[in-house]
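pasting input
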Amino acid sequence: MSPRLARIGLFVAAASAPVVFVLVPIAAFLIMSFWRVETSQLVPDMTVANYAAFFASDTYPRVFIETLQLCAIVAVIGVALGYPIAYLIWRQHGRLRYVLLLLFAIPLFMSYIVKIYTMRSILGLQGFLNQGLVTLGILDQPSLLFIYNRLAILLTMAVIFLPFAILPIYLSLERIPRSLVHASADLGGAPLASFRYVILPLSAPGTIVGALFVFVLALGDFITPQMVGGPSGFTIGRVIWSQFGLAFNWPFGAAMASLLLLVAFVVISLAALIARRQRV
Amino acid sequence: MATRGERIFDIFLWLLAGLVFVVLYAPVAISALFSIVEVRRGDILWETATLEWYARLWQNQSIMDAIRLTLVVGATSVVLSAMLAVALALYVTREDALGRRFIELAVYLPFLLPPIVTGLALLMFFSQVGVSRGAVAVIIGHGAFVLAVIYRLVVTRLQSLPASLVEASSDLGATRWQTFRHVLWPQIAPAVVTGSILALALSFDETLITSFLAGNEMTLPIRLWAMMRVGFTPEINALVTVVLLVSIALTIVIGLRLRAGGRE
Amino acid sequence: MTVLLELDAVSKSYGATEVLRPTSLEVKDGEFLTILGPSGSGKTTILRLVGGFARPTAGRIRFDGADVTNVPTHKRPFNTVFQDYALFPHMNVARNVGYGLMLRRRPKREIENRVAETLEVVGLSGMLDRYPSQLSGGQRQRVALARALVCDPRLILLDEPLAALDAGLRRQMQLFLKSLQRQVRTTFLFVTHDQEEATTMSDRIVVMNVGHIEQIGTPRDIYYAPASRFVAEFFGDNNILGGTISDGRLQCALGAFPAPPALVEGSAALAAIRPEKVRLGTAAEPADIVFTAAVIDVVFAGAITQVLLRPNASPEAIITAKLTSGAAIGSLAPDASVEVRIAREDAVILPAASP
């Protein structure tokens, strides 16, 4: 075998598993978004009817936009809470810093389902939040304000995905050499000025990456809306999921998921671009 | 020296962190609470406090089946992924590797994409090639998902090794296999182990991809999801408490390993 | 000259480890003072304490008569050139250099002019728009200098700023730094582990070892009159001969050297002799110590040739001689027997134990 052929052979061997189990399925589902369903049977076709149906619909585009808004707010909350916490961890030294980091990383690995369940027992009509508010006299009686609506999805997602924001922000802070902070102080920068002119600009890329990360995570979540969203809390993820259950319209689901993939792809590329620029 | 303003700001940061900490750890506290006492209409009935549920935990057949499947899926998918990750990492770090970026893209995609996309893509693909929903589909799904983590750690370790290491080994007459066995493997083994523990933790909790692929064979998160619709019983809360403590322990192990690795 | 910076019994401990013993030091206005020592000697700690990046465990630091011990870094009226330069990677050269002025809210026009002037002083005109990642090591070094100079501080702290440069560039920067310091008339407090660097640039040198000062003096003082064995060995090469004090002289295997009266009778002491003071086979002066030795090796190093010698009277002591290269020395062969002479007053007699 010629060396060139051997090289190609090795590449094919190496690439086979990722191609078969990742790229082909993604291609398959993109193709299937052009199929149609007839009497509960998938029919191979080449029609844009699914996409047309999506955009012609009264509800779906609105749900899609509202989902993007929701995810954006979740991302903003993630950064608004995550940045101060990451900053606090970064300011500590030695063991305390490490322990704090671990404490805020552990929730990443806590059961996702249990987190939703917990949020439900906090936000519910008989939940701890309502009880607390009634005890404090802020509410006269327990309210349904916090459960089975968009706010409930927002709060639950914010809690679940917050640790995903803290970590990248912390990592971008950690990459700032201490000597830069010292240099800023040395040249007369009070803590606030040093933060504004040195720490914030240098950690901004990591922070944006963290926000985009949370955005994508929230975008793909369909169990949270289903469990705490109630009848009014529809998100695109939940709509897609229903196409694979009761509605049984896989091609339509695939078409909507393709749109979701498009958004996710743009966001991820943006994050990759920012991350690369930061390294320079 | 900290000024007054800085000190107030610091106190504010600590308060915020404390509050977030309480919310993030609420799952442990609430599950533990519900596993010990009964809560009726939002009132905690302290007189019902008992540890009995922990003893009965093992009697719920469907839960035990779910745990068994979760462990089987985790172990199988992690072992397969680890082997594939090492092979891919070795290939990609070769000087004459073709399509590096292409392979890396395929490896990272399932980790980066929304799980809903990965899950339904695999479901639709499997339905066309005749793999039905169930354990095998879930194992492949988890394998594709956790591959990125192990691969990332192994490839980072391999890239940090000087190229002269391999050159020295072959210069001394080692075959490719001997070089791997005696030179490279000892260097990457810690990364493989850390990556595998991390992957196991991810697989253990994976819900979204699994929900598309599981069918009637339910892993623990899927079983819990099904049970959540009716509300958890005290014994489920007992189980969840145990599961949470195990995943916390696992995370601490990962944290310690990553820290030790970073110090090398 | 007035005292600009004063360290008064300043010490620093981390937990139980004392990295700096109580140390007092005066830096005079306008001088180039170098703190020289091996790693772990406490030299960088002094700089960090002066810069305000760490607080002393005890003692006071005064600048121009005012106590600055607890003044935060950003309110201290002097600037630092960091070892890794610490240039802000997201700012171009102009913004890096102008940073201090910007923080002081100077008018834009003034900042531009000052930045341009300062960059000219350090020889970096026309690089305003470059980013640190686009500069060479030497250029970054100059930007870091300009950034520290631009606010006209009366004192500049330099933390091994030349350590990252290659040898040729380093020598060039040493001369540049010295002339720059004369030109801007600013006090330089320079930290290094490189003895040659310290010698070339400094008005005075502070030699440090394991957390305390061994000696303070001009480069000449320290070279010709080291105060301790550590200084004798660390600051340039020295032949060290051990012996005992008796009759006011140091008695060692090769002969007796007159000892200073401070050394106690019977105590262990040593003689430090510079290799260039060791002579071979020339006419003897009355004050010389003379002994025969075997040549071990002859190492040619351009203008200088090093000869390693084993004295017959004391075979375990190896004496190095640095001689001007020439035909006679070049023809010396290993194992040749030579006559070695050392003038008695060329030996510095020191107590064997550190004070």
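fyi The first helix of chain A runs from residue 3 to 32.
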